[in-house]
Design a protein that fits this description.
The complex is a heterodimer.
Chain A lengths: L1 H36 L16 H32 L2 H15 L3 H16 L4 H24 L4 H9 L4 H29 L26 H9 L4 H32 L1
Helix pairs in contact in A: 1-9, 2-3, 2-5, 2-7, 3-5, 4-5, 5-7, 6-7, 7-9, 8-9
Chain B lengths: L1 H37 L11 E4 H7 L2 H7 L12 H8 L6 E4 L3 H32 L2 H16 L2 H20 L6 H24 L4 H9 L4 H30 L2 H6 L17 H8 L5 H33 L1
Antiparallel strand pairs in B: 1-2
Helix pairs in contact in B: 1-13, 5-6, 5-8, 5-10, 5-12, 6-8, 7-8, 8-10, 9-10, 10-13, 12-13
Classes of the chains: A mainly alpha, B mainly alpha.
Chain lengths: 267, 323
């Protein structure tokens, strides 16, 4: 009897793993079939106004890249403070708040940026979108930096100080170097996450049918356009949405896997 | 140089603090007109964007809010006389006003999250047990990565897949609408599944090997070890993981936006459409202005406070205790 219960339990557990895997397979196969069906290389040449996706892909990468340019230095600096400089209460308060912010609803961050950037500027803009994504990214970067720096052995820091290096030199040249791979993995995972974000962009950058590099106006976004296209009644729009989803997912998964492989190769 | 570097890092850390306070203050001040207009009753009012005759409202309103809410009221008039004056003086089209209540999206958010939890929890537990205890190390690694990839897929993809492929099947089985509370909740469940499984596995992995080995040595089966050793040991951490996943589900926008139906109506059954807070914001923010926009900010504030509370509870009560 005990053995039978054990068997049933193990079977159920394996079954749930299979269910999880089959969801992944189902989504990927759907994307692959639907996406590849409407996939054309002309999608990379034309803009949305001509039935292509070029402006959206470029726009999304610019938004995410700009968000990283804002979010990575700020997040890393804050992580360094928590781990290297901060003492006691304040540092752990910041760590806790950043943990909470990591799970804050992304749409609320969109609404916040709408109120502080879009309304004063008088309209949606690329800047607003990038700022919203940067706010999403900062807590993730803080979290990685913090936990990766905590893995660096104390002796390394002491050795640096003993050689007469100043503390910031030790942090930049020794501690960060030692934790480099881990931090890069974390940053790539964070980047992969914001590349696929839609909700914070809905009313900050919105999207545009045209190619644009002007960050002061509505900015083309792949994810927001997928949402718009998927809600349109025409079959052709929805096909385009599937092709865009396919490209988006491939981009996100490649960035994500790259991040994982960097750490793996190190070991 | 040392000083500059230290100051910069302190400033960046403080930025987190400022951002969080800033989000709260901004939402509050943007929601203020709606908060003053509707008060706490906002939470229990099922009407959204509904025209109501002004007279009914006036009776239930405190006089002080009346002067601020309506520019038609003459500045020199005393609050108590307002209702009479409005009725006498104003045209018919000013005699109605639009009211907003948050009950429908709040209920929609909570119910869809509950359905997601009920669906995801048993499967996530199963996966976690599989990864932590059953599978050989290399299989566990591969499956673990696959599960984490599922977590990496953008939420908008879950929404499209859910709407066109998953929901029709569910609607065939259960009946009712393809866009409904149920299908939205289930797709939300699929979304939080990998997240929940991963952190539950991490909690289970904290069980000391010595405890497990002693139980096996006494002749316990795997099921008994999991039930009597691992589960009690990591219980607090597992509950924390579940609550954390709940926090994620509460604020999810895109996956739900495709599936919940987006109508401001309380769901009559589990398979009828309704709306959630993030979806109400996503779909109405663009067109909203004035009081309507303020009401959306009020909803955002409520969502922010709920998820703040839920996440803090998970992080600082359960997960801290688990360490």
């Amino acid at each position: 009897m005990r053995l039978l219960i054990n068997k049933i339990f193990l079977g159920l557990s394996i079954l749930s793993a299979l269910i999880g895997l089959s969801f992944l397979a189902w989504i990927l196969i759907t994307l692959f079939l639907k996406g590849l069906g409407s996939f054309h290389f002309s999608l990379f040449v034309n803009d949305l106004i001509d039935g292509g996706l070029r402006n959206l892909i470029v726009g999304q990468m610019i938004l995410a890249g700009l968000a990283s340019a804002i979010g990575i230095p700020l997040g890393m600096a804050a992580g360094i403070y928590i781990q290297e400089y901060g003492q006691g209460r304040y540092a752990s308060l910041i760590r806790d708040l950043s943990d909470i912010m990591m799970s804050a609803p992304s749409i609320v961050i969109g609404a916040f940026v709408y109120a502080i950037v879009v309304v004063p500027m008088g309209g949606t803009s690329g800047w607003a979108g990038a700022i919203a994504l940067a706010i999403m990214m900062i807590p993730v970067v803080i979290n990685t930096t913090d936990s990766m720096l905590s893995l660096v052995p104390r002796e390394l820091r002491e050795a640096g100080i003993a050689l007469g290096a100043s503390k910031y030199k030790v942090i930049i040249d020794i501690v960060i170097k030692a934790a480099k791979v881990g931090i890069m993995t974390g940053i790539l995972l964070a980047f992969a996450r914001i590349v696929g974000e839609t909700a914070p962009l809905l009313f900050t950058s919105e999207t545009s049918n045209y190619f644009s590099l002007n960050l002061n106006e509505s900015f083309p976004s792949l994810t927001v356009s997928i949402y718009d296209l998927a809600n349109e009644p025409e079959e052709s729009s929805r096909d385009l949405a599937w092709a865009a989803s396919f490209i988006l997912t491939v981009m996100v998964l490649i960035i994500n896997l790259t991040g994982r492989f960097i750490t793996r190769n190190k070991k | 140089m040392e000083k500059i570097f230290q100051k910069l890092s302190l400033a960046s850390a403080t930025l987190v603090f400022i951002l969080l306070i800033g989000i709260f203050m901004t939402l509050y001040s943007a929601a203020k007109p709606a908060i003053e207009e509707f008060g706490v009753n906002f939470i229990t009012n099922p009407a959204w964007n509904k025209e109501v005759p002004l007279t009914n409202e006036v009776e239930t309103k405190a006089p002080s809010t009346l002067t601020t809410q309506d520019s038609v009221a003459d500045d020199d008039s005393i609050a108590d006389e307002d209702d009479d004056m409005l009725l006498d003086d104003d045209e018919e089209d000013i005699a109605t006003k639009t009211i907003y209540g948050g009950l429908v999206p709040i209920v929609g958010t909570l119910l869809s999250t509950l359905i997601a939890l009920a669906f995801a929890m048993p499967i996530a537990m199963g996966i976690a047990v599989f990864l932590a205890e059953i599978a050989p190390k290399n299989i566990s690694n591969v499956v673990g990565i696959a599960i984490e990839l599922l977590a990496a897929i953008p939420s908008i993809i879950f929404g499209m897949w859910g709407l066109y492929y998953f929901a029709p099947i569910i609607a065939d089985i259960v009946g009712g609408y393809q866009v409904s509370l149920l299908t939205a909740g289930l797709v939300l469940g699929v979304m939080i599944l990998p997240f929940m499984a991963a952190i539950t596995r991490d909690s289970m992995n904290t069980t000391p090997a010595v405890l497990k080995e002693s139980a096996y040595a006494l002749g316990a089966t795997k099921f008994e070890v999991i039930k009597d050793i691992i589960f009690p040991y990591s219980k607090v951490g597992i509950i924390g993981s579940i609550i954390l996943a709940l926090g994620r589900a509460l604020g999810e926008t895109m996956a739900v936006a495709f599936l919940i139906g987006s109508i401001f109506e309380l769901p009559k059954a589990i398979n009828s459409p309704t709306i959630s807070i993030p979806v109400a914001m996503a779909n109405n923010f663009g067109e909203a202005s004035g009081l309507g926009e303020s009401a959306l900010f009020y909803l955002a504030l409520i969502l922010f406070i709920i998820s703040f509370a839920v996440i803090s509870l998970a992080k600082f009560y359960f997960l801290k205790k688990a360490k």
